[in-house]
Amino acid sequence: MRERRSTGGHSTTRLRSSEVSHGCRACWRWKRGWLQGGTCGRRGSAPGLDRGRVDRGRGRPPACRRARGADTRRRGSHWGSESAMVEQELVRRFASPFAKFAVLVATGVPGPGTPDGRAALEQVVAGLGTVPGLTQCLSYLDGQDTLFQASTGDGTFVVCGLDPRRQPADALISDLRAATTTLAVRLSPQYARLALRWTGDVALNFDLRRTSAAQAHGAERRTLPLTLLLLVWAFGAVAAALLPTVVGMLAISLTLGVAVIISARWPLSILLQNVVTMLGLGLGIDYALLMVSRFREARAAGAGATQAAEVAARQAGHTIALSGVAVSIGFAALLLVPLNELRSVAVGGLVVVTVSVLLATTLLPGLLAWLGPRVDLGHVPRGPGRARAERWRRWGRWVTQRPGTVLALAGAPVALLAWQATRLDTGLPRGDWLPPAMESARAVHDLQRMGRGAVIQAVRIVLELPDGVTAGSRQGWEATRRLSDGLAADPRVARVRSLPASAGGKWRPSALAFLRQDVRRTFISDDRRVALLDVVPRESASAGELIQLVRALRARDAVALTGLRGTAVRVGGLPAFNADYEDAVGGRFPGVVALVVAGTLVALCAGFGSVLIPVKAVLLNLVSVAAAFGAVVLVFQDGFGARLFGLSGPLSGVFPVVPILVFCTVFGLSMDYEVFLVARVAEARRAGLAEGDALAEGLARTAGVITSAAAIMIVVFAAFTLGDFLLIKMLGFALAVAVLLDATVVRLAIGPALLRLAGRWNWWPGGSVASGRRPLLQFPAMSHRSLPLALLLALDPGDGAHPGPLGDAAGARIFTDLGRSALVIDLAPLDLPANTPHHELAQPPVAMLEIPADGSIHGFRVEVVDSAGRELPDELIHHFNLIDPDHRELFLPISRRLLAAGRETGPVRLPGLLFGLPLKRGEHVVASGMVENLTSATYRQARVRLVMDFTPAGRPWPLFRASPWQMDVAFPVGDKSFTLPPGRSSRTYEGSPAVPGKIVGLGGHMHDYGRLIEFVDATTGEVIYHAAPVGDSAGHIASVPVSRLYGWTGLGVHITPDHKYRVSVYYDNPTGQSIPDGGMGVVGGLFVPDRGVAWPAADRTDSLYQQDYRHYMRLVGGHEMPLRMLMPMSAHVGAHEHGAAHAHREKPTP
Question: How far apart, in Å, do the first and last CA atoms of the chain sit?
Answer without folding.
Answer: 100
